[in-house]
Amino acid sequence: MAYPKKIYLVGMPGSGKSTFGKKLAERLGRQFFDLDEQIEKMSGMTIPEIFADAGEDQFRMFETYALGMITQLNEPSLIATGGGAPCFNGNMDLMNEAGCTIFLDTPLDEIINRVSNDRATRPLVNDMGDVKAEMTALYNERLTFYQQAKFTSDSDIEEIMSYLDAL
Hints:
167 residues; alpha/beta; Rossmann fold; metal-binding
């Protein structure tokens, strides 16, 4: 099967991009990249450290750079992006031009539950007072970017495989 060389997962923090992405990459027999992990390797800092020391603008620059580097690799791969990656610096256009984008549209209540249990590793969430209200606002703010993905799924691997098989 000739799948697109690059497959990008986009969606909210806590939507399951990293966890689901590993399973999908294995199923497709391709290399998996977690964009946040790549940023940490390239910068030598954790995501919370980058936010604390350099700020979100610098983090977004690292993110765009790391995304560009992974995109230029010649090998077929699946990339789990950070929740904000599609929303900055033309990244969504880059991903749509370079391959296939899939929006993991996980129910917001499930996302809120997941990120509430993992606030320390999520700088944007860690700074939130009312997580439900602020995550809902963030979702509404980012939805326009996520909807530019070529396909939307609620993390149904068979549905995504059918979509990819049809390409």
